Amino acid sequence: MTDGLADTVETNVTETVGAADAGEAQPVGLGTRLKDLAARMRLPGLIILPIVVFLLSLTLGRYQVSLGELFVLFGSKLGLTDATVSESVSTVILNVRLPRIIAAMLIGAGLAISGGAYQGMFRNPLVSPDILGASAGAGFGAALGIMLSKGILLTQLLAMGFGLIAVLVTYTLAGRLRRGDPTLFLVLTGILVGTVFTSLISILKVLADPYDKLPAITFWLMGSLAAVNRQDILLLMGPMVVGGAALLAVRWHLNPLSFGEEEAQAMGSETGKLRVIVIGGCTLMTASAVSVAGIVGWVGLIIPHLARGLVGPDYGRLLPVSAVIGAVYLLLVDDLARLAGPLELPLGILTALIGAPFFIFLLARTRRAWA
Amino acid sequence: MILELRDLACGYGRRTVLSHVDLAISPGENLCLLGPNGVGKTTLFRTILGAIEPMAGEVLVDGRSILGQSRRERARLMAYVPQAHTAPFPFRVLDVVLTGRTAHIPLTSTPSHHDEEVARSALERMDIAKLADRPYTELSGGERQLVLIARALAQEPRVLIMDEPSSHLDFGNQSRLLGLIKALVHERDLAVLMSSHFPNHAFACATTAGLIKDGRLVSLGAPGDVLTEASLEEIYGIPVRILRGDPATDPHLKVCAARSG
């Protein structure tokens, strides 16, 4: 579980050591060799880390499951072994933990990719995936669904639908109002549309039954993966895979786009097409994340920065690495949410509590690069 | 000829900034536009690049109107060197130069080995190969300008449009850059359209000079014919003297200086 973190820390430590070595003019110092090692371990680390965290998370919980039992369970499911595990282990792992863990990883990866892509498109490192109103719209859809009480599926579909509608309104309005730089108008109208949907959520809260619906809406908006089941994974998988694949496919072209509309066009970038792909992909992923987990903030903002610290700002590497780190990060935070206290903690509150101070730390470290 | 402007008018909204611009540039030619601040040089460049639509007239590249060309096609013919700027992220210099390959890289691809070779050789041509792994954001204004020119070369264009390419450079680097531009025009058979605030830059590297005043291209021709004491005095509103080099040692040297009184 701590492999990757150790990897990160090691990189930092060896960089400092490497710098000291350079001063002493040693041709191949220990620091340099360690630095080389850290650089070479980066790729394997990024592959091994999510697997390790995934397996450990499966074993963690109030109902103890050993790694051995886990392997036997998977082995028997794949027809590799005749041994079996108890019914309760199988239920806990396959129906409870596995869906939740997959949801955490998908949402973490999706939000991190969205945030990273938007930061490039809007040329601003402080942008997060909800900049165009996707989260506010989806939150409104979810609140509306809870008010209607026609079942969880309708609530989720309404959340996703209103997330898409909110961004569509933003995009259309920005296109109508646009003078010059289109991204500026997208941000401005995104703030407006987000505010309108946040107000609409408040209206629903005022109208909601304070003993039943109001707490349900409030807890939904705080974000949680506690109730995730297999059906949610089906709902989440499609938009996440489509949106994620689209963004990863065009990822390199975010490099020229981050130099601004006009300059990118002069270099031959099809900026209009690219923007539609980026906004479409990010909205699919963000809205589906909210529809399953409620509003989980800060992941899309901080993970791309962490990834930039590891592999630099080139989008060719940045987006895939953001996806991996985002998946691992949200899974770890969700493990904390379900294990830290006697009660389940809301995930969205934890990501904010961890994210905000961490972001200040990142700001202090990378300030120079943004100037 | 490779770039041709026919009776072009450009501006923003209803405000016309420049009108009746006719000019043509052939490969191997370098046209330097001069004119006071705010006269519309950048507006003209943006119109040629297709960032704003012409209010009248046509821009032809390789004999075809740019309005009928895709951004990709246009970018393979024409590259733009903006004034040195900052990037929002600390990209490596090589990554910045690679963005010049955008028009050659399909939307769902990443740069190939060939793209990287082209980018590296552009850096070498500009004599800044050693900067390849440095963060762009940590470079000096002059180094950034060289990187942006390398990026334009990596685009492998036939026309190069440069907005005051030497404005961020010190005296020595200005002179070096102008020499480099002159060599590149020759070597790659490029057509260059550039702007400058200094008549000396036109003397140093241009084959043609154009003067812009009051929304018109008022004269166009060999730098020696167009940039005279009388024309420069009229354009800039100050007394000007043009000094010639020693016929024995520097027969082609011409320097323009503001005269006191």
Write a brief caption for the model.
By secondary structure, chain A is mostly helical. In chain A, 78% of the residues lie in helices and 0% in strands. Chain B is built from nine helices and twelve strands.
Give the CATH topology of the largest domain in chain A.
Answer: ABC transporter involved in vitamin B12 uptake, BtuC
Q: What is the global morphology of chain A? A: globular
By helix and strand content of chain B, what is the structural category? Answer: alpha/beta
Specify the biggest β-sheet of chain A.
none
Task: Estimate the global geometry of chain B from the Cα principal axes.
Answer: globular
- Indicate the proportion of strand residues of chain A: under 5%
Percentage of β-strand residues of chain B: 25-35%
Uncertain residue segments of chain A = 1-26
Q: Biggest interface pair, residues each? A: A-B, 33 and 37 residues
Task: Count up the domains of chain A.
Answer: 2
Structural class per helix/strand content of chain A? mainly alpha
What's the assembly state of these chains?
heterodimer
Following the backbone from N to C, one meets helices and strands of chain A in this order, namely HHHHHHHHHHHHHHH
Poorly predicted parts of chain B: none
| Lateral arrangement of strands in the main beta sheet of chain B | 6-7-8-3-9-10
Which homologous superfamily in CATH is the superfamily of the largest domain in chain A? ABC transporter involved in vitamin B12 uptake, BtuC
